[in-house]
Specification:
The protein has eleven helices and eight strands. Helices cover 45% and strands 14% of the residues. The relative contact order is 0.14. By secondary structure, it is of the alpha/beta class. The chain folds into two domains: 170 residues, Rossmann fold, CATH 3.40.50; 153 residues, Rossmann fold, CATH 3.40.50. The structure holds the ligand C=CC1=C(C)c2cc3[nH]c(cc4nc(cc5[nH]c(cc1n2)c(C)c5CCC(=O)O)C(CCC(=O)O)=C4C)c(C)c3C=C and fe (ii) ion (2 copies). The site of one fe (ii) ion has 2 residues, from loops. The ligand C=CC1=C(C)c2cc3[nH]c(cc4nc(cc5[nH]c(cc1n2)c(C)c5CCC(=O)O)C(CCC(=O)O)=C4C)c(C)c3C=C binds next to α2, α5 and α10.
């Protein structure tokens, strides 16, 4: 029997090369021209991205990226992902070869796969770094990998992780990170997930009649909705809350980062902030369990924008719980997901 290393391909979203407008525009164009992300007719997508989003959003997003950009290390999403790759390689040892890729921009999925081919690694497990499944996140990663290996003469033996929203070690890591902030000293706890257009949830519903059409459709996960993004988000939040002994009335699940005017999964985090401020709540602790590394959506949108929004409404503090980043228990969770 010929012994070879086993390959692990970690894939996260990607980030611009710099916070400069032209790099951010390049990044946004590649990202938003993906039909799994902006799932509208191709003509409308090209018009929206090239005519509106790239020219108008890029300078604004660039200014936000500047706020979180580290002078030496660059984008937080990138440097935490590199660290995760290094630590996972250390943990798994010589029997495995770990590569990191980004779905958009660099390092490209094709180059990471090429590394495996060069090293004669023909067993590969793909681990998209998104706990909850969405076609716009893990779905597009796995599709891209299939497209790339589909061009090879020898198609490798390959497996894909779809999602890991309830992985016990990941749940425990979020709970550990939350405990550091002493949740009982906050008036309310939010679990703020990245949002998703409602039409994408509907398309992922195998029955076509349940998700977003029946009240409370996905507040509980079951065999029929187990790959529903919203159902997985609610389940992740419920599991973290239960590790922290938080009763239901002490926390709210909500969704941030809406883009455009079409309906996205509700409740929107902004609306929840308004309701809580009106109820007289002053201090909020916010988990962002759709992300495994701190990034623009946590460090800027939550820590800066939502904090300012909430203070303007009479609140005192929005405190972000840091992401999984390089927490040793999260590296154990990754190793558990990776080993085969
Ligand atoms: C149609 C638009 C978008 C969908 C659908 C979407 C899904 C989605 N995104 C993530 C994770 C991340 N998104 C990030 C940034 C980001 N997301 C969108 C749009 C959609 N995302 C935009 C336009 C941006 C860019 C930033 C901005 O201009 O505001 C990031 C952060 C990247 C970074 O460099 O820090 C992450 C991570 C998930 C998990 C997801 C589906 C569930
Ligand atoms: Fe996003
Ligand atoms: Fe649903």
């Amino acid at each position: 029997m010929i012994k070879t290393k086993k390959g692990i391909l970690l894939v996260n979203l990607g980030t611009p090369d710099s916070p400069g407008t032209s790099d951010v525009r390049k990044y946004l164009r590649e990202f938003l021209l993906d039909p799994r992300v902006l799932d509208i007719p191709a003509f409308n997508r090209y018009f929206l991205v090239n005519g509106i989003i790239a020219p108008f959003r890029a300078p604004r997003s660039g200014a936000s990226y500047k706020e979180i950009w580290d002078k030496e290390k660059g984008s937080p999403l990138m440097y935490y992902s590199i660290r995760q790759k290094e630590l996972l390689q250390e943990k798994l040892g010589d029997g495995y070869q770990v590569e990191l890729a980004m779905r958009y921009q660099q390092p490209a999925i094709a180059s990471a796969l090429e590394q495996f081919r060069k090293e004669k690694v023909f067993h590969i497990r793909v681990l998209p770094l998104y706990p909850q499944y969405a076609s716009a996140s893990g779905g597009t990663v796995n599709q891209k990998v299939m497209e790339e290996v589909g061009k090879w003469q020898v198609v490798p033996e390959i497996s894909f992780v779809n999602s890991f929203h309830d992985h016990p070690l990941m749940i425990e890591t979020f709970a550990d990170l939350g405990r550091k902030h002493n949740p009982s000293s906050y008036d309310h706890i939010l679990f703020s997930f990245h949002g998703l257009p409602v039409r994408q949830l509907r398309k992922a519903d195998p029955s076509g009649r349940h998700c977003q059409q029946v009240a409370g459709c996905c507040s509980r996960i079951n065999i029929n909705n187990r790959y529903c993004y919203s159902a997985q988000c609610h389940d992740t939040a419920r599991l973290i809350a239960s590790r922290l002994d938080l009763p239901e009335e002490r926390y709210t699940v909500c969704f941030q980062s809406r883009l455009g005017k079409t309906p996205w999964v509700e409740p929107y985090t902004s609306d929840v902030l308004k309701r809580l401020a009106a109820e007289g709540k002053k201090r909020l602790l916010v988990f962002c369990p759709a992300f495994v590394a701190d990034c623009l959506e946590t460090l800027y949108e939550v820590s800066t924008e939502y904090d300012e929004e909430f203070r303007a409404l009479g609140g005192e503090k929005v405190q972000l719980v840091e992401s999984l980043n390089d927490h040793p228990k999260w590296i154990d969770a990754m190793a558990d997901l990776a080993r085969y």
